[in-house]
Amino acid sequence: MVKAQSRLTSQKTISAKNFTFDGNGETISVTVAQAIVKVLENLGVRQAFGVSGGAMATLWAALSNSPLIQVIHCRHEGGAAFAATEAYFASNRPVVVFTTAGPGITNALTGLLAARDEGAKVIHLSACTSAPQRGRWAIQETSNYTLPQEGIFTSGTLFHEATVLESPKQLPQIARRLALGLAGIGGFVAHISIPTGVQSMPSEIPLPYIYPDVKLSVPSNDTILEVAQLLQDGSFAIWVGFGARHAADLILQLAEITGAAVMCSPRGKGIFPESHPQFVGVTGVGGHESVMQYLHDHSPRHILVLGTRLGEPTSFWSEAMIPPEGFIHVDIDPKVPGVAYPMATTYPVIADVEIFVEALLDALPIKLPQILSFPNPETIEIDTVTEDLDLVRPEVLIEAIQRIIVDGSDALVLAESGNSFTWSTHLLRFDQPHRYRVSTGVGSMGHNVTGVVGAALGRGGKAVAIVGDGAMLMNSEVSTAVKYQVPAVWIVLNDARYNMCYQGMSLLGLTGADATIPQADFAAIANGMGAEGIRLERESDLETVLHQAMAISGPVVIDVCIDPMRLAPSKGRNKSLSVQGIKATKEEKQISFPLV
C-alpha cells in the first residue's frame, strides 16, 4: 500500500574508539561525560541550555569544554527547556537541555513536555544519584525513593527515549538510539540521566556513528489518484497547520492551480501568504470571522487538512467546520486523522505533507481554475494616534509591530500565551513561513518569554517576543540574554493583570476571582539586570521606540503600558469553554472567531 522515499542517500556505521591523543601520540582515556558529549557533537548538537549543579559538575565541564557546542547557562531549568525548544525550530538542529539532579529535572519537565508537543528535537542530559548513595537521603536525591521512575527515566508519555546510563558499556546502544530517534520523522525528546559517580568513569568503548536512511511513507498511486478525484468532484478548501511548514511553496502552487481557499491554524501563520487573495483567515484562538463567512457562503465539499491535529486551539471542535463530504486529512502520525472530529467523515492519508502534495500536483490535471472572490481576514479600524492618550491601545501597538518589525525586518516573532497570543495571531500578517511562533498544545505561560532567547541564538539574529506582564514576571531569562548579549526584544503588554483571565471571567459572568497583579516597571527591572529597558506610555512614541529597539544589538525590554479595557479577540475561546460546561451569563460584542 505504501512506498518509501528517502531524504538521505546512504547508510553507514563508523566505529570510532572513544579516546584522544596527547602531544606525544599517547592515548588518553576519556570519561563517560566526555564520551556522551562527543556523541552529541556527532549528532549535530551545537547548543546546550541549562542550569548547573554539584551532581552534574563533571557533565557541565565536559559540555563547556566542547569545541563545537555553545553552552548557555540559564537562570531556571524551565526557561532553559523552552529556550532549547525554540532554538531547535530556529536552527533545525537538535539541542541539549542540561540539568542537575532532583529539582533540576522536575523544573525542566513542563518545558520538555512542550518540546514534545511542539515536535522539537531535544535531548535532556541530567544527573542522578549514584547507586551506593540511593536511599540514604543524599542531597537532591534522585532515585526511586524520591521520584517516580516511569515516565521520567523510562520511555513513555514524556520522553520518546529515556534511560539511566549506569555503565560505559551502555554508550554504543544509547548513541545508536539517539541517532535513530533524531533521524526519524517528527519530533524526538530524549532523557539521558547519568549518575554522578558514573560521569567521571573512564570510557574506551567504540561508539557507532550512524547515518540512517530516513524512509518517508508515500501513499500508493491509487491513493493519490483517489484523492485527486475527490478534489476534482467539487470545491474544496485547504486547512494548513504547523506540520506543513516545509511544504509552503508546494501548497501555494496547489492553491493557485485549483483555486482553493486556504485557512491556517495559529501555528501555521505564514506558511500560505496571508496577503494572498485566496487566504480566508486563521482558525481557532485569535482567529478570524472571515473563515466562518467563507464556509457559510461557499460550503466546500471537502477540506484538505495538511499537518494540523485540528485540536481545540485550531478548531474549537466546532461542527460548523465540518464540510459536507468530510475531511481528507494528511499527517505523518497515524493517530491524528479523525480523532479531533470523530463524528466527521475522514479520509486518512498517512504521509509527509511535502511528499504528498508533490505527488498530488503530478496527479492533478493542468487547467485554469475558476477565479472566486473569497472573504479575507478582517482588521480593526484604528482611530488616529493622538498625543494625549495616557495608555497604549493594544491594536495600535500591534499595527506598529507589523510595520516596523514584521514588514521592516527579518526578525522572528514569538507570541506568549494569553491576550498577547490573541492580539498577535488576529492582527499580525505574515507572508513567509518560519517567521511566527506560538505554543498551542501545552500553552504554558513562560514559553516564549524564555523561548525568545533560544530563538535568537538558534537563528543567529533578532527575535522579538510579544508577551504579557504575568508571563514576564514568571521567568524571562533577561539576565541570561545580558550575559551572552543575545539580540532578543521583549515587548511587554503591561496592564497589571492576567487580562485573558480577567476579561474572560467578566465575559462569562463569573465574579469573585481576582486576576489583578501589582503594576511592575519592567524597564527598570531590565535596566537593573544590565539590559536596555524602555518605558512606553504614549502611542505617539511607538514608532521611535520600536526603531530604537531593533537597532540595539543586545537585549531590550519595551515596557508598554496598555489599556486593559480593550477586549482581546478571544470570544471563540470563551465559547469553547461554554460548550465544555462553563456557562456565560452575559454576552458582549467582541472581534473573534464565532463558533457556537
TrEMBL record:
<dbReference type="GO" id="GO:0005948">
    <property type="term" value="C:acetolactate synthase complex"/>
</dbReference>
<dbReference type="Pfam" id="PF02776">
    <property type="entry name" value="TPP_enzyme_N"/>
</dbReference>
<dbReference type="GO" id="GO:0003984">
    <property type="term" value="F:acetolactate synthase activity"/>
</dbReference>
<feature type="domain" description="Thiamine pyrophosphate enzyme N-terminal TPP-binding">
    <location>
        <begin position="31"/>
        <end position="143"/>
    </location>
</feature>
<dbReference type="InterPro" id="IPR011766">
    <property type="entry name" value="TPP_enzyme_TPP-bd"/>
</dbReference>
<dbReference type="InterPro" id="IPR029035">
    <property type="entry name" value="DHS-like_NAD/FAD-binding_dom"/>
</dbReference>
<dbReference type="InterPro" id="IPR012001">
    <property type="entry name" value="Thiamin_PyroP_enz_TPP-bd_dom"/>
</dbReference>
<feature type="domain" description="Thiamine pyrophosphate enzyme central">
    <location>
        <begin position="235"/>
        <end position="360"/>
    </location>
</feature>
<dbReference type="GO" id="GO:0030976">
    <property type="term" value="F:thiamine pyrophosphate binding"/>
</dbReference>
<dbReference type="GO" id="GO:0009099">
    <property type="term" value="P:L-valine biosynthetic process"/>
</dbReference>
<comment type="similarity">
    <text>Belongs to the TPP enzyme family.</text>
</comment>
<dbReference type="GO" id="GO:0050660">
    <property type="term" value="F:flavin adenine dinucleotide binding"/>
</dbReference>
<protein>
    <submittedName>
        <fullName>Acetolactate synthase</fullName>
    </submittedName>
</protein>
<feature type="domain" description="Thiamine pyrophosphate enzyme TPP-binding">
    <location>
        <begin position="417"/>
        <end position="560"/>
    </location>
</feature>
<dbReference type="Pfam" id="PF00205">
    <property type="entry name" value="TPP_enzyme_M"/>
</dbReference>
<dbReference type="GO" id="GO:0009097">
    <property type="term" value="P:isoleucine biosynthetic process"/>
</dbReference>
<dbReference type="InterPro" id="IPR029061">
    <property type="entry name" value="THDP-binding"/>
</dbReference>
<dbReference type="InterPro" id="IPR045229">
    <property type="entry name" value="TPP_enz"/>
</dbReference>
<dbReference type="GO" id="GO:0000287">
    <property type="term" value="F:magnesium ion binding"/>
</dbReference>
<dbReference type="InterPro" id="IPR012000">
    <property type="entry name" value="Thiamin_PyroP_enz_cen_dom"/>
</dbReference>
<keyword id="KW-0786">Thiamine pyrophosphate</keyword>
<dbReference type="Pfam" id="PF02775">
    <property type="entry name" value="TPP_enzyme_C"/>
</dbReference>
